[in-house]
User: Fold DUF402 domain-containing protein from Paenibacillus shunpengii.
Amino acid sequence: MKPLTVISRLGEFQGYGTSEVAFFDRYDELSRKVIRHYILILEGVKIMHEPWGWTNEWYVDLIDIKLNDAEMVLTDLYIDIVVEGNGPTYRLIDLEEYADAVSQGLIDMKDMNKHLTQVQMFLENYLHRGKVFPPKQIEELCKVNMGEEDNCR
Assistant:
């Protein structure tokens, strides 16, 4: 696990990662606790447990990831998944925001194909047909202590 700077629309954060996974912690005003943001690099998603004061739900952001040296830049790709408990129940949300971005030319057809495939692969790999959620990589990362409160469920 090596240190890295994570930059997103939320700001700039000190995080840690490997070539496959990363994480950073951020204090959430609504829930009044530190929320760990897990990044599955190969899947192109960022996952949070119980953000914004939610109870027993996971929030999955579809993201674009740019890596260079010790810096990771995340770009939100509009489509989100809310997972209830440990799945398999989930809801796809913000599809209208994605459609607007496509119709405004912010996302081209080639990228749209890639993004929709990303969503489908995430669902197949982690939620469909009795899969266990959250992904195993997250279980390992929640145990890493960065001097904040416990980040495991």
Residues 109-126 form the longest helix (18 residues). Residues 2-136 form a domain with the FomD barrel-like fold fold (CATH 2.40.380.10). The helical segments are 95-103, 109-126, 136-141. Residues 43 and 118 are 7 Å apart (CA to CA).
